Structure formats: C-alpha cells, structure tokens
Amino acid sequence: MLNKRLIGVITVKDGWAVQSFAYRRYLPLGRPECLAENLDRWGVDEILILSIDRSGEALGPDIALLQRLGALGLSTPMIYGGGIHRVQDAAAVIQSGAERICLDAALRGDPQIVREMAELLGTQALIGVLPLSCTEGKLAWYDYLAKQSAPLATADLALFAEGIISEALLVDWRHEGGAGSFEMRLIEHFPLPETALIAFGGLSEATQFAALFSKPQVSAAAIGNFLSYREHAVQSLKKQLGEFALRPPIYAFSIQ
Fold first, then answer.
1. Is 5-240 a domain of CATH 3.20.20.70?
2. Domain range summary for the chain, segments of one domain joined by +
3. Segment 56-69, tens digit of pLDDT
C-alpha cells in the first residue's frame, strides 16, 4: 500500500485553469484539459480539480468539465471540488468520472447533508477542505465566500471526529502561490491527530514535502502552481523523495 501521495491541483475559474495567489489574484494558465493530460502523463498520484467560483455563483458542480476530462481517458484518479451542496450534486460528480469529492462550503451548511453523502458514496469518497491560518498557535478557518476568518472551533470538526469525512485538506490560503511558504503550524496545531491530512498551499520544494511526509498524520501533499511551468517537476520531485512510498512517475523521458 502506498503510504503517501502527491496530488496535482488544477484550480479552475470561469472555465479556465488559473494560478491562484492567496484566494485574491489569478493568473490564467489555459484549458484545464491540457493541464490534466500533463499531470496524468507526468505521474502524479491523483488530480484534484478545484472549481473555485461554482459555490459563490450558485452554479452547482461543473459536470460539463468533468465529462470533458472523462473523455480524455486519463489513468490517474480524479478528485473534484466546487459547487457541491446537495446529495444529488455529489452523486452527479461521481457519475461523471471523479472518484472522490472535496467539500468546503457544504461543511458550513447542514451536517446532515454531508452525512447523507457519506451514506451514499462511502466516507472514503469525502474530503473536507479547511482553508486555515495560524496566529499565536490558534487556528482560524477562512470563509472564502464571506471573505473573513473565524476561530476554528471543536464543533467545526465534528464530521471529521466522527469519521464521516476521510481526510482533511488543510489549505494555507495566506501563502497559496508563494514558493516555499507553507505554514507547518497548520499541521502541528490541528486538534484531531487521528484525522488524515492533505497539505496544500505554498508547497514547492522537496524539503517541504519531506518534512510533511515524515509526519504520520499527513497522508498526501497537494501542489498546483509550481507543477505548471517545469515539465519534469513531478519526476524530479519524486526522485528527491525516494525514501517515501510514492508511485513512480510515468513520464516518458527519464532524468539521468
């Protein structure tokens, strides 16, 4: 069994893949399909599609995008997040080719809806997204729709504590897009040690990934912007992380 995973992230806004900076600025990168094909070819363990404007504009999940991605015949498992608020939304995403779903805004809504999603799809299919910051050892949860943070309370984590959601995607939203800037205190101060964690935001260096993967509760690390500009980035990163159990990259050309 693979102990750790490297997840390639494609952030989508207005139908285009973008480079995101701290949930505030966005640089267009191109068609999501092109990035997905590259990540699939280069050997990431999973591809995470984050459609960041679907909830704010009440558009629901981007099923058309999922269907286009499904038609590509990708071999890499796909995760999708964005606009999932109802059980029907979750089912439609899985039926359109995603193996798992990410929930952010839905976590702040009716917990019973999330429980019903887990009952239908299984808890392993659900990942909870937590955009966090840390000040003086205290975690705060950022509401990207309201554009404000509030202290992370025990009640906010009830679904994780109950095992309704299999993993928590901890997003260092303040440092997203900044090279080598992930805040390790998000991991160190997360109050549920038994919850599997995925780190995301400001990850670019092999030393960061090695430090994260050495922590038992970290099941995966997600990287977006910094895979977009270097063709051999995945292969080079996995080569440097050879001590950890990662799927070998499948890119056609080898680094000697």
1. yes
2. 5-240
3. 777 899 999 999 99
